[in-house]
Amino acid sequence: MSYPVSVVIPTIDSRRDFLFNRCLPSVQLADPAQLIVIFGKGNGNEKRNAGARAATQPYLLFVDDDSEISSEILKNMVWALEAHQEASIAYSGYRTIQEADHSKYSRDTYPGKWSPDRLRRENYIDTTSLIRRSTFPGFDPEILRFQDWDLWLTMSARGARGVYLSKTLFDKYVIDENVSAKVPEKEAREAIVRKHNL
């Protein structure tokens, strides 16, 4: 049984090995009804939006090309949104893994319950969260870092709610310099604060 989800993966050439050897096999095991990989020009948000425009399923899941998802992620997240019709977003815990210099460390992150007040104070929900496609407003192409925070703030301001799954359902790998990290954190945070009047 395929789950009614369009999985969208924006990618860059330097991540091709990880994409084909690690990311895509994990997504295929999760069994989405549609898989969209966006190559080519444009920043990450432009690629995500292009993928969303091509989506046909009622749910969207954006997966970074340096991540691996659990085979259970779609089952759990679709169930959560079907059980909570008032919610537009399902999100979970995740593990960050760094492999370098023959060493490896990992850190588990458990975001906690949905809170619009907390969301206005901090960026605590990852991009890899299931979204009802009918409520997705698009990513802002001008926001080059904290694009997930910007999206959740935009949706929250429109009345969207999220449901939290206290499980580790995907792994984020640190395999190179993150593209968004090229934008200074202070500058990126100030852009969010100005846009959302935080």
Task: Write a concise synopsis of the structure shown.
The protein is of the alpha/beta class. The chain contains six helices and eight strands; from the N terminus they run E-H-E-H-E-E-H-E-E-H-E-H-E-H. Strands 1, 2, 3, 4, 5, 6, 7 and 8 form an eight-stranded mixed beta sheet that branches.
Protein described:
The structure is a single chain. With 198 residues, the protein is of the alpha/beta class. The protein has a single domain, classed as Alpha-Beta Complex (Spore Coat Polysaccharide Biosynthesis Protein SpsA, Chain A). The chain is built from 6 helices and 8 strands; from the N terminus they run E-H-E-H-E-E-H-E-E-H-E-H-E-H. It has helices at residues 16-30, 44-54, 73-83, 116-121, 147-157, 185-196; strands at 3-10, 32-38, 59-62, 67-69, 89-100, 103-109, 130-132, 162-174. Strands 1, 2, 3, 4, 5, 6, 7 and 8 form an 8-stranded mixed sheet that branches. A hairpin with a 2-residue loop joins strand 5 and strand 6.
Name the CATH class: Alpha Beta
Categorize the overall geometry: globular
Number of H/I helices: 6
Radius of gyration: 16 Å
Mean pLDDT: 93
Low-confidence stretches: none
CATH fold naming? Spore Coat Polysaccharide Biosynthesis Protein SpsA, Chain A
CATH architectural type: Alpha-Beta Complex
Strand content: 25-35%
Main sheet makeup:
8 strands, mixed
